[in-house]
Design brief:
The protein has a single domain, classed as 2-Layer Sandwich (HIT family, subunit A). The chain is built from four helices and five strands. The chain has helices at residues 3-6, 8-11, 60-81, 141-155; strands spanning 16-20, 24-28, 44-48, 85-89, 99-105. The longest helix has 22 residues, at 60-81. It starts with a helix and ends with a helix.
Length: 156
């Protein structure tokens, strides 16, 4: 089995594709454990298309392009979701395929101020109308449009 065959980010989209080019893609990450009441609504990944593990596997032009996409995703999430903070992370310990997490955070989310990967500090309310994670305008066309505009500004 090849590395690409074994890699979930080579085999699968990694989420709902909001935008892509030949080098990378921006995906909205679904909460597979709880799609109707996600723990981290609006979380995105910027995934490098070619299977590489580290930023230094890219040449300078590729690194600049990838970071322009990451920064544009951050700006688009700030515009559409209006979080209290954005977390950026490139870990790859579990899936060693170059990707960046772009995660909107709110002071009342389940994990704040800790990392979203750690234990939750509070439960989500059972009533969806009282759930602070049910935030409007995080996904879909608004995010895509804001991203395309932000990317154009990054590349100008």
């Amino acid at each position: 089995m090849s590395v690409a065959d074994a890699c979930p980010l080579c085999r699968e989209d990694g989420g709902e594709i909001l935008w892509q080019d030949e080098q990378c893609r921006l995906v909205l990450v679904a909460d597979v454990d709880n799609p109707d009441n996600p723990s981290n609504p609006g979380s995105c990944r910027v995934i490098w298309q070619r299977h590489v593990a580290e930023m230094t596997d890219l040449d300078l032009t590729e690194r600049q392009h990838l970071m322009a996409v990451v920064f544009a995703a951050e700006k688009a999430l700030r515009t559409t979701a209006r979080p209290d903070k954005i977390n950026l992370a490139s870990l790859g310990n579990v899936v060693p395929h170059l990707h960046w997490h772009v995660i909107p955070r709110w002071r009342d989310d389940r994990h704040f101020p800790n990392a979203v990967w750690g234990p939750a500090l509070r439960d989500l309310p059972r009533d969806p109308l009282r759930n602070p994670n049910n935030r409007p305008a995080i996904a879909g066309a608004a995010m895509r449009d804001a991203f395309v505009q932000s990317l154009a500004e990054e590349q100008a």
